[in-house]
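To whoever picks this up:

The parser on our side crashed when reading a file containing two proteins. I've narrowed it down to the boundary between the first structure block and the second sequence. Both blocks are reproduced below exactly, byte for byte. First block:
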Amino acid sequence: IDKLWVEEGSTLAILGPNGAGKSTLLSIIALFQKPATGLIEISGENILALRNQLRFRRKLSFVFPQVYLLNETVYKNVALPLRLRGIRNTNKVDEMLELFKISQLREYKTSTLSQGQLHRVSLARAFVTDPDLLLLDEPFLSLDQRYKESLSTELRSILKQNKATTLLVTQDHSEALSLADKLAVMKNGKIMQQGEPQEIFLKPVSKEV
């Protein structure tokens, strides 16, 4: 397969082992890296050829495996993407704090929070700008299994509610199945198969898949 696609408003999980190229793919889509060859189109527009790439990057959010937050209050961290864009919409920040169940932590410094709470802040910050494209790179990597399952269930509901077009990369089968509408299996930088989760698990195209 030489083409990977994700439908608007849906979640695609890219599943594969370490070194498959999953994180590199997200970095290329986010314009952090340049591909040697290929094309990335969003709504028919080749983003690699954009003159104003900053305009595109402001329409997406990226959640990394490690949580990167300022040693500031929860409120200031969630509000940061809006402030950087010159948007003063405090209602939106309050809405995200409520959505991710961290309203009670708004004045807490991030250095005082648990891993689970930090992940909630990171996700709230990613959603606060209503991104056209959400990129999730192993977003629950450092969480224990029980908390991961709980947060995955909540996140799936939020993704549906917000109709966010989402690309998730993971090695965790259960995480991919709980969050994604469609799956793609990746190995050695290539997409081996893409389609409905049930189709891929029941009718893999190869032994590798």
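<<boundary where parser fails>>
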Amino acid sequence: MQSYERTRLADNFDEQSFPAGSEIIREGDVGSSFYILTEGECQATQLDESGGQQAVRDYAAGEYFGELALLRDADRAASVRAITDCKCILLDKASFERLLGPVKEILARDADNYAKHV
């Protein structure tokens, strides 16, 4: 990316902090943002057959989540909770679709990695 493109993209991100233990996204909610974890650790969980939460994925700084609901125009497939104090940069759905249109194919391809959990 050229400097102008990086600046344009960065201008569309918001930064948000989440204390350890807080819920960032909730399974079943409407997807409204795409998250990139810049600091901390998070864990994705899904409801199991008994109604409990089952861990399905851990996230570290530099990883992203929340794209599946936006790509599929579906509700959140999992909950994500901050394990440690976290900072994320996020894009709202409209910005995600406008700015990341060219990389949607890559995100959709990577979404196949979630197939066993969704």
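After patching the parser it read the second block fine. The first helix runs from residue 3 to 11. The chain has four helices and eight strands.
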